[in-house]
Amino acid sequence: MTVIQTDFVPIVPYTTQHIGIAIGQRYDVIIEANQPNATYWLRTWPQPCSARNANTGTGTANAYVQYEGASDVLPTSTPVAFTASCNDEQTLVPHVPITLDPSGFPGNRTAMPVSAPFRVNTTGGNVFR
Fold this sequence. Notes:
elongated; 3-stranded antiparallel beta sheet
């Protein structure tokens, strides 16, 4: 598959067999349907960031893709080998780089010119504005 976008930002496309997706992340990918006529697993695993997310290798939210005319049997393909980790994708490069002119920013500051939130006590608790 080719990864083309992450969190609504177009990136320099790259090809991969798998991607690590953390909570709340979104990726747009292009999957080319150029394999022999058959049925293929589309596997997902939680990232093994804790014992509760232990990756057994069988997948936890599996689906399959079936080419038109393929026999109605579950796929027999095996998972792609990969190194499980808690890291996000590391090779993301924006398609259009964002450069900022630092001259518009003041130098080092020790205090920010903002006021503290205004708190109102209500019967349901504190409300901050």
